[in-house]
């Protein structure tokens, strides 16, 4: 069994593409996934699967969501080990990490080319700090995420791949959930 973090893109935003996380959990369990957990209403799911191919799994989950809820939601997956690596590779200072709501990790479906990374960096003129590493674009937003003009659309256009962002609080909480799945108990003496 492989553990995956499943990120749904574009659900429960502005009243569109509404999915209750309890309904999503039941749906995923009904089609054979185990240890299913959700976090927040923004489309964060942890599950264990016998399918180890993340591309095949993403396509299967997208099809199930389309069929059950009647709309498309693109999915980006990371294994639990890949998620830990995302956290280990972060470029942030201790001072930046003390403001986790100002940090956004955009999880990308594909790894961008050096040329597309250069295009993003040259197109961005704000005070935000961007770092692209592997399949992630790390961003620090000193004035907060609500005031920035740097949006997911620009990141996707310049990097030429789909992505979905999660703030550092959510990234950290998802890691914690992977470390103690719900069907496993810990004995404390």
Please characterize this protein's 3D structure.
With 189 residues, this protein is α+β, with helices and mostly antiparallel strands. It folds into two domains: 81 residues, Alpha-Beta Plaits, CATH 3.30.70.1280; 91 residues, Alpha-Beta Plaits (2-Layer Sandwich), CATH 3.30.70. The protein is built from seven helices and eight strands; from the N terminus they run βαββαβααβαββαβα. It has a four-stranded antiparallel sheet with strand order 2-3-1-4, sandwiched between helices. A four-stranded antiparallel sheet has the order 6-7-5-8. α3 crosses α7. The longest helix is centred in the first third of the chain and has 16 residues. 29% of the residues are buried. The C terminus is likely disordered.
């Amino acid at each position: 069994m492989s553990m995956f973090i499943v990120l749904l893109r574009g659900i429960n935003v502005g009243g569109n593409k509404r999915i209750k996380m309890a309904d999503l959990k039941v749906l995923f369990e009904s089609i054979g996934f185990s240890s299913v957990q959700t976090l927040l209403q923004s489309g964060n799911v942890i599950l264990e699967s016998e399918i180890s191919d993340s591309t095949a799994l993403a396509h299967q989950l997208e099809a199930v969501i389309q069929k059950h809820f009647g709309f498309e939601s693109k999915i980006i997956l990371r294994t639990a080990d890949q998620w830990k690596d995302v956290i280990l590779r972060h470029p942030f200072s201790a001072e930046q990490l003390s403001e986790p709501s100002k940090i956004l990790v955009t999880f990308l479906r594909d790894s961008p080319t050096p040329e597309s990374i250069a295009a993003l960096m040259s197109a961005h003129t704000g005070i935000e700090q961007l770092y692209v590493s592997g399949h992630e674009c790390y961003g620090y937003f000193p004035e907060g995420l609500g005031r920035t003009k740097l949006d997911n659309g620009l990141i996707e256009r310049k990097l030429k791949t789909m992505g979905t962002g999660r703030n550092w609080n959510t990234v950290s909480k998802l890691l914690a959930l992977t470390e103690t799945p719900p069907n496993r108990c810990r004995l404390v003496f």
